[in-house]
Amino acid sequence: MPFFPLSGFNPLQSSTLDTVAASVGATKMQVALAWLLQRSSNILLIPGTSSVEHLHENLKAADLQLPPQIIAELDAIGGA
After folding, report:
1. Does residue 64 contact residue 25 with C-beta atoms inside 8 Å?
2. What average pLDDT is seen over the chain?
């Protein structure tokens, strides 16, 4: 069932994503997508894209391996 788990970030959450993204050299959306992919092997992401460039940017998230301390920081955003 498709859904949009990345919608509605408040400024604090965006700030956290910005900080994490800068620390790993990725965009905040790449970090968010990588975080979702690393949460479970049975997650199928269906991110929207508005251009071929955006598609390539989203695909890079599959190769982004987030360290455990970053996963924990991102988990804390939503109280997961």
Report:
1. no
2. 82
